[in-house]
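Hi there,

I know you've been waiting on this one. I reran it after we fixed the sequence typo, so this is the corrected version. Both the input and the resulting structure follow.
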Amino acid sequence: MSAGRAKHSWPASGAIFPKEVYAHPSARADFVYFAVEKVLFFAALETLAVSGDLVTARLLQWFPVRSAVGGGWWATGLMTLAAFLAFDLGGFVWHFLTHRVQVLWAFHRVHHAAVVLTPISNYREHPVDSLGRSLVQGALVGAAQVAVLHLVPGARPLEVGGINVLYLPFLAFSNARHSHVWVSFGRLWSHVFNSPAQHQCHHGTAPEHIDVNYGLVLSVWDWLAGTLYLPQGKEEVRYGLVGEQQPFPTVLSMYVRPFHDAWLRLTKRAAQEQYALSVAPSRA
């Protein structure tokens, strides 16, 4: 049976908001974390975040455009596409790094510690993780926009409320990415777009679900990087961290423990490198 025709499996209650999901301690922790994040850290993150427009403005100071004459709709389309691709690629690159670099994983694992998924789980993200992603995405979007401006001075991306229009369709499915609802795009389109089902597999603890499907909107990046996983049908996915029951028992620990874990990973790596140097044969 293809992924696009798989029969959906709902929680035992059959409800749209099943109690076993939304009343789970992991979900309740998500709700508190979301409230704390928005109240205490949102303003600070907005101040520190690097947007594509900010990078564009700085790069234009170094590499000025000679004129500001636009090129019509085709120029708008080119800028919109370039900014979208750069933003999505930046999200993929950062997500990939957070799984492969141990110090970054110390912060990103807060997100993967959720053992049930609700739309609010999308916001279970450590501020360091959020800031890092904004830095990478901002740098790539800024570079892409400056490149287009040198081809077509005056070009601007088409946006609605500050959101790239090519990103808007993704918002229709974004809440399903972190939910109990299985939504697949089918085998063909899942090579291009990252479906909610693919992202739910990304959160899985089964061996075939580890380190796959890093994409945000597009799964093309995963396809090219060899990290694409396509479920063959509806899968029962077990969420959480492999071999760990509850590394973050409180909301406070979600914020504090990653710094401790990152330091341990950093110092352990430094100690290993120092040991390797001490036992390495002399090159003299």
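Quick highlight: Residues 1-10, 275-284 have pLDDT under 50 and may be disordered.

Best,
R. S.
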